[in-house]
Write a structure and sequence with these properties.
By secondary structure, the protein is an all-alpha fold. The chain is built from three helices and no strands. It starts with 12 loop residues before the first helix and ends in a 5-residue tail after the last helix.
Length: 61
């Protein structure tokens, strides 16, 4: 669940959150490309890092 007010409407919560700042989509897409397609980390190492970051942000892993 997001920690901000998400606009009401149809569709996934994540899609409705992006409606708040659609101009940021290109930057996030570039970051995802760098992390998932151009990373020097193995998949297992990347997943451990993702899980630890989620823990630090008090998200459910």
């Amino acid at each position: 669940m997001a920690r901000l007010d998400v606009p009401e409407g149809n569709g996934l919560e994540a899609h409705r959150v992006w409606m708040l700042a659609p101009h940021m989509g290109a930057g996030v897409a570039a970051m995802s490309e760098a992390v998932y397609a151009k990373s020097s980390l193995a998949i297992r190492e990347r997943e451990v890092a993702r899980m630890r970051i989620a823990q630090l942000n008090q998200c459910v892993v």
